[in-house]
Amino acid sequence: MAKRPVFEEVSDPTAPSRPVTRTGMIDAARNGASRGARRAIRIWLMILFAMVVSMIALGGATRLTGSGLSITEWAPVTGTIPPLSEADWQAEFDAYKQIPQYAEVNPDIDMAGFKQIYLWEWAHRLLGRLIGLVWAAGFVFFMATRRIPTGWTPRLLGLGALGGLQGAIGWWMVSSGLVEGMTRVASYRLATHLGLAFVILGLIAWYVLLLGRSEADLLRARRAGEAKLFSMSTGLMHLAFVQILIGALVAGIDAGRTYTGWPTMGGEWIPSLIWDAALGWRNLFENPALVQFVHRMVGYLLAIFAVVVWIRARRSPHPVTRGAFTVMLVAVAVQVALGIMNVIHASPLPLALAHQIGAVALFALIIRGRHHARYPHETSVRGTIR
């Protein structure tokens, strides 16, 4: 008999063969489904992000063309359809003639001019309704197919709730311009309306960034997060948000067209009309000199703080993080330049819209840098691991 190796496995040739067990198939399928769901929800949110950006731009155009008060009632359902007959148009025009803006600002407007401003406001409201429909359709679909990842339902539902609140605030803003003594909306209500739009935009941007990576990847990346840089970028994000609110106050009272010199204001470093005793605390919202001065000063502060954050980001060991903050700093420089050009040229429509879209881009880029500070991409000798 031939000798057998000591460690040879002994088996019974007559025993029935057993199938080879393959482990991990269910987990792989679940992980694949999870990745697919995150990708689909991310695409849906990116569509919503683009629509909200368009909404902000269209809202800016509506304000700059003086169209925001052309529709004098809030009709969420019936208002979807614009006037279709001359009688309908005349009824809308007659309603517009009842508000102070017509008598004090547009007494010579004809039907053709009214149709132009009406369609700006109608398009703005229609886009808001479409955003609500896209959110509702996506949310219901992902809920019905049980594709929403664990813990994400409150986040996505919260976006819809904020969108509904935004519609109500929009009418609250418009209604302020329909009362006696008002020819435009209250600036603080405009700031509230724009501020909430940026809150929604910021949340969507953060969610898109989170969904771009798996939960396991995010958990692993967070351990390498840079707490100091994250804290500084959070502060920069908050300061940028405050500057956006102040910019809305500037737009609300056309303060950007009051002082068109730079770097001084009317030849003065601090304008002599910076405080009107008759206005009291309302100077903060209604005094063009004070509102524009504050907007300029906060703009300078924001630019300085952005440079400080960028210098700190240069010490990051992660190339993607460093790159994100460099792009952010470029956006700050562009936005400052656009702001100065707006002041010098008294905020013409193209420049004013470019400045507003620049604010959107800068805000999103700050959030992107903040995300990379919290969840940096791993690096190895071969390069970045995405």
UniProtKB/TrEMBL annotation:
InterPro entries, sorted: COX15/CtaA_fam, HemA_synt_rhodobact, HemeA_Synthase_type2
Any one GO molecular-function label of the UniProt entry: heme A synthase activity
Pathway in which this enzyme or protein is active: Porphyrin-containing compound metabolism; heme A biosynthesis; heme A from heme O: step 1/1
GO cellular component, as recorded: plasma membrane
Single biological process term from Gene Ontology: heme A biosynthetic process
Topology of this chain in the membrane: Multi-pass membrane protein
Subcellular location: Cell membrane; Membrane
One Pfam family named in its UniProt record: COX15-CtaA
Membrane-spanning ranges: 43-61, 126-144, 156-174, 186-209, 229-253, 293-311, 323-344, 350-367
Taxonomic superkingdom: Bacteria
Function recorded in the entry: Catalyzes the conversion of heme O to heme A by two successive hydroxylations of the methyl group at C8. The first hydroxylation forms heme I, the second hydroxylation results in an unstable dihydroxymethyl group, which spontaneously dehydrates, resulting in the formyl group of heme A.
Subunit-level organization: Interacts with CtaB.
Official protein name in the record: Heme A synthase
